[in-house]
Structures are given as structure tokens and as C-alpha cells.
UniProtKB/TrEMBL annotation:
CDD domains: SpoU-like_rRNA-MTase. Keywords: Methyltransferase, Transferase. PANTHER family: RRNA METHYLTRANSFERASE 3, RRNA METHYLTRANSFERASE 3, MITOCHONDRIAL. Pfam families: SpoU_methylase, SpoU_sub_bind. GO terms for molecular function: methyltransferase activity. The lineage of its organism: Bacteria, Bacillati, Actinomycetota, Actinomycetes, Pseudonocardiales. GO terms for biological process: methylation. This is RNA methyltransferase. It comes from Actinomycetospora termitidis.
Length: 244
């Protein structure tokens, strides 16, 4: 139910963010406070049967509550420090998990570029566990346009690439201390060659064991938190410059 609470919280500050709430009687009794908040925020609420809920969702075991939300508008904030870019990522579970990870890492935005899955795909929304409502998430169908937009915002482009010329570690700390947009590709094909070639750097995550590769969401977590660590160290070392 966490995503439902996050969506209603969004509606409390952004009227119209949630349009309808459908809920079974059992869940309504358990989530009475949520319904009170939703109605106070102007969300239309309706009690429905378990069968009706099943028809409104594609999950095998519905939780008894469905929200209809307006697609939020999204834009890069001023002076972003960390952005995750998903390029041609088709798996909604992986994509939603990256949104959740980026949110946890304090990223400023997540960009779905190229032929990536719709970030508002139901499976992607569920995998984000409410993080979709916490930070800007938007689409850039033309990767070159998305990259140009990120560069204009002052971000360096770094591709996560198993064959990258740099290995993630102490030697990349100075690089990652700067404002960075990490670009992640699909597990099957990685980042397309033209985008990788145009990036500022290509960094590989070291694999010490015998695994062939990392899951996309796992690799994204490793890379994003490497940036968090490097940027935090830079801010601690230069508090005056960081405050400007």
C-alpha cells in the first residue's frame, strides 16, 4: 500500500494528481485514514467488489485498491547533480527498480530515453514502490536530444559499460564528484554504440567472481551510490564551494 499513500500525498500538494480511488470494503476498513485523506484532497472514491478490482488491474493477486492518476509533468531541476538515464530498457520491473534506487540515492531525475518502456506501465509503477511520485521522471524518445538537454544542464555523460575504459573505484572518484548523468542500457544489448561513443566516459563495474554480468538494477545501484559517495566526499572537503 506504500505507493497508494505516496500517490495521495502527491494529490495533497498537487490537486488533480489522483483522479479516482477504487477500493474494496475490506481494504477500506483497514485503510480508513487513506480514504479520508484522499477525499479531502478531492479524489473521487468508490467502494467496489473484488471482481471489479480484478478487472481494473493486471496483477494476479490484487491488493484491493486501485488509483487512477494523472501523468505528472516533469522537468530537470536547476543545477542537477545526479541523473539516471535508461536507454532502450524494455523490462518494466528493472526500470521501476531503477526509479526506486535513484530515489533512494537522492538523484534529481530519471530519464527514459529511446525505446525504453513507458515509465507509467503498471508493472513499472509497482516496481518503483511509490518512488515515481518522489522525483521527476520523463521521456526523451530521441537520445541525442536527451543527451543535449543533460549537457545543457551542466551534467557530464557517463555510460555504464562492461567494456568501459575506466573501472569503477577510487580512480573514478574525482570524475564522479562532478554533476553526472549515468546512462544505463538494456541487459541484452547494453548502451547503443553511438550514444556510448558520444559520452564523456565509459565506466565498467568490476566483477571479481565468475558471474558474467550484473542485473541492470543492481549495476545502477552500484554506480549511483558510487556517485553519491564521491559527491558527498567532495562536499565535505569543499563546504563553501558546495554551498554556492
Amino acid at each position: 500500500m506504500r505507493p497508494a499513500h505516496d500517490a495521495v500525498a502527491r494529490a495533497e500538494t498537487d490537486p488533480g494528481a489522483v483522479v479516482d480511488l477504487f477500493v474494496t470494503e475490506t481494504v477500506a476498513d483497514r485503510e480508513r485514514d487513506l480514504l479520508i485523506r484522499a477525499r479531502a484532497a478531492g479524489v473521487r472514491t468508490a467502494l467496489v467488489t473484488d471482481k471489479a478490482i480484478a478487472g481494473l488491474t493486471d496483477t494476479v493477486h490484487p491488493q484491493g485498491l486501485v488509483l487512477v492518476c494523472r501523468r505528472p509533468s516533469a522537468a530537470l531541476p536547476a543545477a542537477p547533480r545526479l541523473v539516471a538515464v535508461l536507454l532502450d530498457v524494455a523490462d518494466p520491473g528493472n526500470a521501476g527498480t531503477v526509479i526506486r534506487t535513484a530515489d533512494a540515492a537522492g538523484a534529481d531525475a530519471v530519464v527514459f530515453a529511446g525505446e525504453s518502456v513507458d515509465p507509467f506501465n503498471p508493472k513499472c509503477v509497482r516496481a518503483s514502490m511509490g518512488s515515481l511520485f518522489h522525483l521527476p521522471v520523463f521521456q526523451e524518445r530521441v537520445p541525442d536530444d536527451g543527451c543535449a538537454r543533460l549537457r545543457e544542464a551542466g551534467l557530464g555523460l557517463v555510460v555504464a559499460d562492461g567494456g568501459g575504459e575506466l573501472e569503477l573505484g577510487a580512480d573514478t572518484d574525482d570524475l564522479l564528484a562532478r554533476p553526472t548523468a549515468w546512462v544505463f542500457g538494456s541487459e541484452a544489448h547494453g548502451v547503443r554504440g553511438d550514444v556510448a561513443a558520444a559520452a564523456d566516459h565509459r565506466i565498467r563495474v568490476p566483477i571479481r567472481g565468475r558471474a558474467e554480468s550484473l542485473n541492470l538494477a543492481t549495476a545502477a545501484a552500484v554506480c549511483l551510490y558510487a556517485s553519491v559517495r564521491a559527491q558527498s566526499a567532495e562536499q565535505a572537503a569543499n563546504p563553501v564551494a558546495s554551498a554556492r
